[in-house]
Amino acid sequence: MSRLFAPVRAMAVLFALAMGCSGVHAQPAGADTPPQAVKESPREILVMLRLPAPHFRPDSYYPSSYRDDSGRVARRRIAEAVAREYGLTILEDWAMPSLSVDCYRMAEPAAAAPGTIIDALSRDKRVSWAQPVNTFAGQGASDPLYPVQPAAAQWQLADIRKAATGRNVMVAVIDSGVEADHPDLAGQLAYKENFVDGQAYAAEHHGTGVAGVIAARAGNGVGIEGVAPNARIMALRGCWEIAGGATRCNSFTLGKALNFALMNGAQVVNLSLTGPPDRLLRELIDAACARGMRVVSAVDATRADGGFPASHPGVFAVSADDGKRAGAQILTAPGRDIPTSAPGGRWDMVSGSSYSAAHISGMMAVLSELKPGLTLAQVRASLVQNNGPASAQTGIDFCATVTRLTGKCTCVCDTTDKVIHAAQR
Fold first, then answer.
1. Number of structural domains in the chain
2. Residues 161 and 287 in one domain
3. Residue from 81, 14, 8 nearest 47 by CA
């Protein structure tokens, strides 16, 4: 199969023709009214209280069984005592057995100077740690649309699928809501959970688009094809859309979703978002990496370190900058003019490192099917990255990576001029 690197204008024409033939329509800007954002306070904090070991139950993620736990009353009393002493108001609580803590979301009094209560709590022996509630943002910018998917040619997906399709690999998409009955996603979701307090689960653009890039159905005669069309998606809504269509998340909603992924057997975790360093998320990501889970995150091109969690050791950081941010710790993948699924049974053209990260998460699902026992260091050592200019392309060479892992070349591949991306973070 020859490689095709079509100009963006030609891709847009093909996209429009394919959409006309298939009878689908791009999502017009502002066509849907996004749900109201969760009301956030800049003075909200998270307070972690240590869990006793017997509280751990691997058969549940504690949305209801936690509420019935006989030890919860005693822990709640401790939390209430802490709140009274520091003038805090308890807003919500959630058990995070993967870290052996109870997480309480509390509001600071308006008169408190920023940071003073957190500093005091850090010295309180009843408290494991306390932190601000940080805000995170999504990095969005042979079926009819398959020919205009950049990865179809660049990654030689048709030939890669002779080796693997990500069959039964569990990918946690921690994002805004995914449309479960979308024609390209029907039957692809193993879980659909909502961790955004005060809102019903909603199908939203960012989450639906990310899930489509990873695992849209192949060969169903409509739309696109995911990188790993036989993977299983955990649609974990830890983010929501705000007015204008932007995607927002916070420490608490993301933490609850990550804890669910840890407790329910995710093999790949996609975090197409970025924000400030966050201890709760850092601890959960470390726990995921310790279990061999592949955590993939979008790079924020405006931040020198790529932003968090992309900058965190163990995370596969992914950029859409076509080599501009390529380096020892950053992967590049298709992220410009990507056709993908959209709410309302539609398809749309998207750009941004969110969708580059989704490509790598799909790739991780395929690699997990091929070699499930690989350590994270071995996965990194297996990745082959183009370094141009001969190919007029930079980024992961999926075909050469599969060849390196299996010793068999199922497509047109030449690893003689590739750079092995073997950085261990």
1. 2
2. yes
3. 81
- Shared domain for 106 and 206, answered yes or no, is no
Phi, psi of 314 (to 5 degrees): 95, -20
3-class DSSP assignment, residue 41: coil
In a domain, residue 128? The reply is yes
Look up the domain containing 197 and give its range: 137-373
Residue 202 token pair: 């909603």
Tens-place pLDDT, residues 143-196: 567 677 888 888 888 888 888 999 999 999 999 999 999 999 999 999 999 999
Q: Do 67 and 162 sit in the same domain of this protein? A: no
Q: Which residues pair with 419 in a beta bridge?
A: 385
Find the helix or strand (DSSP H, E) in which 360 lies.
helix 353-370
- Residue 24 CA: distances (Å) to CA of 9, 108, 148, 199, 300: 20, 49, 15, 29, 31
Token pair belonging to 166: 């990500």
The three-point CA angle 295-299-304 to 5° equals 125
Q: Are residues 59 and 167 in the same domain?
A: no
Question: 179 and 341 in contact (C-beta within 8 Å)?
Answer: yes
pLDDT tens digit sequence for 201-234: 999 999 999 999 999 999 899 999 999 999 999 9
The b-or-e profile of 83-97 (16+ CB within 10 A means b, else e) is: beebebebeebbbbb
Averaged pLDDT, 364-368:
96
Write the CATH number for 114.
Answer: 3.30.70
